[in-house]
Fold this sequence. Notes:
Blueprint: E1 5-12, H1 18-28, H2 46-51, E2 58-64, E3 67-73, H3 81-88, E4 93-99, H4 106-117, E5 121-127, H5 136-150, E6 158-159, H6 168-178, E7 191-200, E8 204-213, E9 215-217, E10 221-224, E11 229-232, E12 235-239, E13 243-246, E14 248-250, E15 254-258, E16 272-275, E17 295-301, H7 307-320, E18 325-331, E19 335-342, H8 345-359, E20 363-365, E21 372-376, E22 381-384, E23 396-411, H9 415-422, E24 428-433, E25 436-444, H10 445-449, H11 452-459, E26 465-476, E27 478-485, E28 488-489, E29 495-498, H12 502-516, E30 524-530, E31 533-540, H13 556-576, H14 583-590
Parallel strand pairs: 1-3, 1-4, 4-5, 5-6
Antiparallel strand pairs: 2-3, 7-8, 7-16, 8-15, 9-14, 10-11, 10-16, 12-13, 12-15, 17-19, 17-20, 18-19, 21-22, 21-23, 23-25, 23-26, 24-25, 27-28, 27-29, 27-30, 30-31
Amino acid sequence: MNQNIRNFGIVAHIDHGKSTLADRFLELTRTINPKKMQPQFLDMMELEREKGITIKLQPVRMEYKGYVLNMIDTPGHVDFTYEVSRSLAAIEGVILLVDVLKGIQAQTLMNLELARKEGLVIIPVINKIDLIGDDELRLADVVNEVAGLLGVDKEEIITISAKSGANVEKVLETVIEKIPAPERNAAAPLRALIFDFQYDSFKGIIAYFRVREGTIKRGDEIFMINSATRAQAKEVGWFRPDRFPREQIESGEIGYVVLGIKEPDRVRIGDTITFYEGCQKIEHLPGYKEPKAVVFVGIFPENADDWALLRDALMKLRLSDPSLSFKPESKSALGRGFLCGFLGLLHAEIVIERLKREFSLELMTSAPSVCYLLEFEGGKEEMVCSVMDWPDESRIKIAKEQFCDLKIIVPMKFLGNTLELIERRQPNIHHLSADKALLSCEMPFRELMANFYDKLKSATQGYGSMDYHFLDWRRSDLVKLEVLVLGKLEEALSTIVPRERAFQEGRAVVEKLKGIFPPQLFPVPLQAKIGGNIIARETVRARRKDVTAPLYGGDVTRKRKLLEKQKKGKKKLRNRAVLRVPQTVLWKMFRTE
């Protein structure tokens, strides 16, 4: 049976057509009833469909010409690379998908490197050929580009249109032909690698796993080695793509097991499942490298009584997203909450939106920040990952921030626009081909996190892509920029900026805030300050009701009297008002629209 199994995944840069290709596979293999079929079928979350991106990996079992095809659809955005790395550990091969209009991009290179590290078979596929018509030259350029990257013959590269289904069947046949069958070792003791979790309100924790050795049956007493957790396999089965119960899952197959455990902190991704009897003699499988959070956001419940609900919600989300980290923190302005670590701004935005939708929580958030290494008098060092924890400037002896090696791939026609973004960093330019360039430079991660990805997409009309890795800590002259709204300090809008650019940053912050802050019945002053000095100010004009409209004549003093009464009312209202910056305003401030 195992000789007829193929375990594979689809990897690509964002928006290169992974989900559309997965839809064609589901249709070709008749895995889904045609009446139930819809675009992006494997994107199960409402949020994925709204944003048009894949957020969570999704396995599915298909049958085609006597073969069993276990496929894992993966995300393409750089913030969800950890989802891709977990998927690759459970399969033997990948389809590397490239958009013919955009060619090889940064995330293509990153996913390729991950696949090579796992020793996987790579099947190159060029998608969207229906969009270039008879432009054979464009297709030839991309084919040459991919062939050169992988070191393969051009004849091995498959050209398809996932939208129309052209040549898609050839991809499945190539998967069967080139990707090896998993090694069969059913007689050995059970060892299965957990690559994902799902939490069910009724069944508890459900583990997604790949069986490396042995067989797991419904009712077996199992043991998770790393977390030292014992459980019973209350249900086992396949993904089609909904859960499909079976009596057993054999070596080489991908499936799920219902553990019946309700405490999320008792299990972890990357653990090894074996039988409880004799578990002391079983060696665990290689797990996953723990991801390091790079962006930190304070999350606080609007209702202080919801703190425990927020904690439970974060624990349940971390089950399937181990790149999310959190620890309790308390702030006088916002109350009790959690400092949460993320892999990027999009990752943070998605998690916060899921907390609101899936757990019905009303939340407040602080400004996203990165970690800084501060040295005080006496040689004491402290890592600060929240702007609200930034100490008084007089105490800081040396401030250090992380620098990263940034690589950008852009078409030549957008080279000028891209250079404007990074000209201060003196980038190196390497020409990959006649119409594509690779730019590399060193940049503080603080600048990279502050909307750089969105700015790059705007400057290159979506054709630019980027990748980065961290280098080291470097000394910088940094200060805390604070924002006052109606004279009250708004900690959620505080940021850390270089001293030399403090005035420009302060001016930009209040001008942007003025453009998106909702008008009130009275003028709202917006101020930026450093220490005790106000460095910039703007005012949100008041909404004005025309109190003189009912007048039909008479002396001008009647009009003045009404206007004076309105003026006194606005002043009285302003003195009593307590303003709260809406969450929608905060996220518009953090991201480039």
